[in-house]
Amino acid sequence: MQEIVLEEPYEFVPPVESSFWCWLVRLRLPGYLRKTFCVESFEFRGIEKLKQSIASGHGVILAANHSRLADPMAVGMLAAEAGCELFAMASWHLFKEGWWQRFLIRRMGAFSVYREGNDRQSVTQAIEVLEQGRRPLLIFPEGAVSRHCDLVMELMDGPGFIARQASKRRAKAGRPPVVIHPVTIRYSYDGDAEQLIRADVEAFEKSFSWQPQTQLTLHQRLRKIGVALLTLKEVEYLGSATEGDPHERAQGLISKKLDQLEKKWGLADEAAENSEPNNIVARVKRIRTKILPDLVAKKVSSAERQDRWHDLAACYYLQQIAHYPRGYLTGTNDLPERVIETVERMIEDYQDRASYHGPLHCTLVVGDAIEAPDTRERGVEGDPLMRRVAADLQSTLDALVDERRAKLFGSSATSD
């Protein structure tokens, strides 16, 4: 399990405004992205829309999809192209990965948000940033790294609340409202994906004591590995493997185990009231919020501590399993970047290490400004503002996928 949950008291980490450090870091950012994340080239679209919103005096949120750990730095490249600096909400654990990283990301405008609780300080900071309007604010409203850049997960409501509160304050001061620009991030790979990930596929097969399954197609090999990995988690969490379609089995595993955990931690009624069975990120967050306080306060025995960490690990893996969407790979005209993403996700989830392949090309598209009202529409399910953002992100991704398919497989190819 990646170390994203910490057993220590949360302390809000504020940003440090420093144009000098932004300038200095950006000089090294292209090389860092190449060396660390294999992202070697960029294309920016719609930057004039962002420039117009800034020039018009709006408070600006950049709401981006989040499929790779490189995304914040990629948006930093976009900001440099637009001639602006950013503030950004960043998960608290990123500030705990060494003093140098903490030093740098604070001076790049990042401030912490606690994903395992209601972080009023972070929300207040975000509202003040937008109220003042000195820099755009970057938020990743999916709430987690999806590892699939062509499908947007359900967005959290928090950014909509922040935008409306800031718009309300700006209205009282006679200033233009907050606008949200959806920022679509998509990565592509133009080489031979099968050759690129062959060693990783064989390593998985050998870890199961299999002979290399070279008699199968790449799609068949990945599917077989995926079924084996799913079976291991079914045995771990349910006691035995099930049969049937792998995606249905995965959904069944997620549903059964989350139901068990919600019942165990007294959250079953709250989960029913929220009526969001498919928002795995939100359900996992509620469970973590219930488990962590006494753990952090050292109010549990050694045995109970171990039990709680077992449940936290289950939450982590259930959320990760939910990031394998049905039909993402079909075995026919699969986009090479999807193949790479799937293998990297398997490596991260089941070998507990980050893996990057490339070279990748990153396309960033700034969408039209969506004005944030100062009140929320009543009597509708979900947040209408965030639904508009999600729809814009997904439609832009669909268009980019169509471009890729036309380039690789001909103009008759269409998106999924």
From TrEMBL:
Q: In which pathway does it act?
A: Lipid metabolism
**Where would I find the Phospholipid/glycerol acyltransferase domain in this sequence?**
60-188
As one GO molecular function, the record gives:
1-acylglycerol-3-phosphate O-acyltransferase activity
Which BP terms from GO are recorded?
A: phosphatidic acid biosynthetic process
What InterPro entries does UniProt report for this protein, alphabetically? Plipid/glycerol_acylTrfase
Q: Which Pfam families match?
A: Acyltransferase
The protein's superkingdom reads: Bacteria
This one is known as Acyltransferase
Which source organism? Botrimarina hoheduenensis
